[in-house]
Amino acid sequence: MSNSPAAQGEGRSAFTAKRFAGRRGPTPKQDRAARTKSLVLTAAAELFAANGFRHTSVKDVAERVEMTKGAVYFHFPTKEALAVAVVEHLYAKWPTLLEEIQAEGLTPLDTAAEMLNRAALAFRDDVIVQAGARLQLERPHIDAELPLPYVDWTELLTELLSAALDEGQVKAGTDPAATARALVAGFFGMQHISDVLERRADIVERWREVRDPLFAAISR
Ligand code: LUB
């Protein structure tokens, strides 16, 4: 039996058949445009991460993907729009990561630790994360609305540590919000030092040195 939605629709309720009727995926042209946009964004991230916002031009991005400036402007009207898109892609990664980790059924405390462990790997390996973090540091020089940094992570860790406190995983009297702020500050400072000194090659070890005493201090 064909697996096509239309064919499957014949054996299903009228409602389901209607749902499939007329539903089309992206056209090849839309697919190509999406792939091109992704290539441009990655090239911009590579240049932003390496050289920063001010020393990256749309011309640099166009040359990196062997396209015209006009082709880049078709997808991103300004260099600021490229920066906003990189930062937005950075922040979109964390809810997806959280869902992956929550699917593992870890305790709230272990979920908090694993989120930060995986963030360390992302800082080491993912150019969107590396570029987004640098752009956030350069936000005073970017004439665009960028999300407020650190607050979402602090809120997430506060929620997880509050749940850990409720479940008796951390010592009575632990302040979830204060501990969350300490974890974000410790992580972000750690990744910056690792980047400056070792281009983040040693970030996993450096994160372990920050993480273990902090988590030991609050764990029961
Ligand atoms: C997170 C970045 C990169 C912090 O929260 C943020 O603003 C973040 C950019 O500023 O990762 C990860 C603890």
List keywords for this structure.
220 residues; mainly alpha
Describe this structure as you would to a colleague.
This protein is globular. It has helices at residues 5-10, 14-20, 28-51, 58-64, 69-75, 79-102, 108-125, 127-137, 151-166, 176-198, 203-218. α10 (176-198) packs antiparallel against α11 (203-218). The protein is mainly α. The chain starts with a helix and ends with a helix. 72% of the residues lie in helices and 0% in strands. Bound molecules: 4-(Hydroxymethyl)-2-propylfuran-3-carboxylic acid.
Per-chain topology:
Layout: H1 5-10, H2 14-20, H3 28-51, H4 58-64, H5 69-75, H6 79-102, H7 108-125, H8 127-137, H9 151-166, H10 176-198, H11 203-218
Bound molecules: 4-(Hydroxymethyl)-2-propylfuran-3-carboxylic acid (LUB).
Residues 119, 132-133, 136, 149-150, 152-153, 184, 187-188 line the site of 4-(Hydroxymethyl)-2-propylfuran-3-carboxylic acid.
